[in-house]
Amino acid sequence: MRRNLVVGNWKMHGDIHSNETLLNTLITGLSDYKSADYVVCVPNPYLHQTRSLLENTGIAWGGQNVNQFEEGAFTGAVSPHMLTDLGCTYVLLGHSERRVLFHETNLSAAARFDASIKANLTPILCVGETLAEHDAGLTEVIVASQMDAVMATLNDENFAKAMELNMVFAYEPVWAVGTGKTATPEQAQEVHQFIRQRIARRNAEAASKVRIIYGGSVKAQNAAKLFSMPDVDGGLVGGASLNAEEFIAICKAAN
Question: Which residues are catalytic?
Answer without folding.
Answer: 95, 172
